[in-house]
Amino acid sequence: MKTIDSIPTSKIQRASKLVTTGAKIGVNYLKYYGDKITKTEDEAKARLNENNAEDIYDGLKTLKGSALKVAQMLSMEKSILPQAYVEKFSLSQFSVPPLSPALVTKTFKKYFGKDPNEIYDKFNTVSINAASIGQVHKAEKDGKELAVKIQYPGVAQSIASDLALVKPIAIKMFNIKGKDSDKYFKEVENKLVEETNYILEVEQSKEIVAACKHIPNLNFPEYYADLSSDRIITMDWMHGVHLSEFFTDNQEVANRLGQALWDFYMFQIHKLKKVHADPHPGNFLISPENELIVIDFGCMKTIPEDFYVPYFELAQKDNIANPVFFEEKLFQLEILREDDSNEELLFFRAMFHEMLSLFTQPFHQETFDFSDEVFFGKLSDLGAKYAKSTELKDMNGNRGSKHFIYINRTFFGLYNLMHDLKAKDIKINNFKSL
């Protein structure tokens, strides 16, 4: 794979890159108008989406950092984006052009004050995996195989300016209005700042590993604080394949892995009130022994009690069926607002009743089949329905507690991973006995 010798780090450099990307998109639209003469509307639109997705991704992957992380987050919103964008942006999960060996050494000296070969017995300057915020190298020390994650230069310093650049896109995509919309962007900014703090990540990793290591069929690397810094993390090298590359026709294995994944998330959410909020395939491996390995704890979301209680009360079937109780919880979760018009109250009450009635189905049963194509087809159709809703576009999309951003992201990602595994007969409340 082609490597990168430099990353734009100044606001002007990064803004210029996005302006260049914008110009390419303009050309793509000119091609689209030409295509409509000789092709059907669907064919012309499909080509436009493919060209735009490629150009946007190419621009973001050279910037890395927050801009690429946003693309990664969007790739999980499969019901919102056209498939071309989902496919292209999903590459940001664990497969982007890495830093060149020369830049790796330079970066390592800057962050750690030493050449990597002064610290490890062996260090491969060619990365094994490259993602949005950092890349992973293989090393050895005292007979142990190690994974060393190095953060890209300038990532931490450019978070605020990167989000300011992508903010107009997000506002348009999610129809966010109102003076208090900044709370959503601040929530994302704060989480991204945490993700660039590798000292915090090592602390969080050790904390979650200690709390969850008893869960069956689940494994974690050990983290080495003495070989880590604020921009470098050293952990055990774990053997396995990424979840996205894993396939088994053994249903028992799929169910066992699915149960481990589900229990891991439910235990964190309900027992720890803190959850691994980045459930994409690049953060999970399947070992040769068919154990689930969790390898990244940079994005952890604490769940406040005043959000946790109403959120999970709305996961109960009887509560969804109770109109008065249901509306009360929608106000508590800031989904309905005091300044809503009667039209908005009616629309969003009906919309969230439909969505929650479907999305919470796994919690209404003792066991659930996450391989069910009908269930996931309904989820996709419902997402597409509201993504295309002209009525919704005329209303204020700025609603819901800021905590929804990462909690909903967690559940959408978890559902998708469970579906990818084709896990069946999953015991929903198994975490209670762990």
Relevant terms:
alpha+beta, five-stranded antiparallel sheet, four-stranded mixed sheet, 16 helices, 13 strands
Can you walk me through this structure?
By secondary structure, the chain is an alpha+beta fold. It is 52% helix and 10% strand. It contains 16 helices and 13 strands. The protein has helices at 11-38, 41-63, 65-75, 83-89, 101-112, 159-173, 182-195, 198-212, 251-272, 305-313, 317-320, 323-332, 342-359, 373-387, 390-393, 404-421, and strands at residues 122-123, 129-130, 134-141, 144-151, 218-219, 232-236, 241-242, 274-276, 284-286, 292-294, 300-302, 367-368, 426-427. Strand 2 and strand 3 (134-141) form a beta hairpin. Helix 2 (41-63) runs antiparallel to helix 3 (65-75). It starts with 10 loop residues before the first helix and ends in a 7-residue tail after the last strand.
Provide a concise account of the structure shown.
The protein is α+β, with helices and mostly antiparallel strands and 434 residues long. The protein has helices spanning 11-38, 41-63, 65-75, 83-89, 101-112, 159-173, 182-195, 198-212, 251-272, 305-313, 317-320, 323-332, 342-359, 373-387, 390-393, 404-421; strands at residues 122-123, 129-130, 134-141, 144-151, 218-219, 232-236, 241-242, 274-276, 284-286, 292-294, 300-302, 367-368, 426-427.
The DSSP helix count reads: 16
Order of helices and strands: HHHHHEEEEHHHEEEHEEEEHHHHEHHHE
Mean pLDDT: 83
Helix amount:
40-55%
End-to-end span in angstroms? 44 Å
Secondary structure class reads alpha+beta
Q: Residue ranges: pLDDT <50 for 5 or more in a row?
A: 75-80
- Beta percentage is 5-15%
Give me the oligomer status. single chain
| CA radius of gyration | 22 Å
Specify the biggest β-sheet: 5 strands, antiparallel
**What is the molecular shape?**
globular
Query: How many beta-strand elements?
Result: 13
